TrEMBL record:
Residues 47-106 form the Cupin type-2 domain. It comes from the Bacteria. The lineage of its organism: Bacteria, Pseudomonadati, Pseudomonadota, Betaproteobacteria, Burkholderiales. Pfam families: Cupin_2. CDD domains: cupin_reut_a1446. InterPro entries: Cupin_2, RmlC-like_jellyroll, RmlC_Cupin_sf. This is Cupin type-2 domain-containing protein.
Amino acid sequence: MQVAHGNLLTKLPSDSSAEVFELLHERAGLKIERIVSNGQASPPGFWYDNPQEEWVLLLSGSAGLTIADTAEEHVMQPGAWLHIPAHCRHRIEWTDATQPTIWLAVHHEVSNET
């Protein structure tokens, strides 16, 4: 058995021109990744519509996220988390351009539990 380890706040990508998605762990029905943003946002008119549920935690920086059919923008600061149900359309309005915005994203299959 091999133990994996790391630090989500170190070894940041040197190129900040694009978001970087780093796969940390994956198995059937589960994907955990670190996302590093540097001022990126969703393209105009683009909405994420994922078949899996997603739970995100903002570790550093800041961001604004909008859920479709709502007027409220979720302004996220370090420590803020959000659970996004499967097929809940959402977009990133902005991320901090003055420092890295680091996300921990957990994608998982839809639970059958109520």
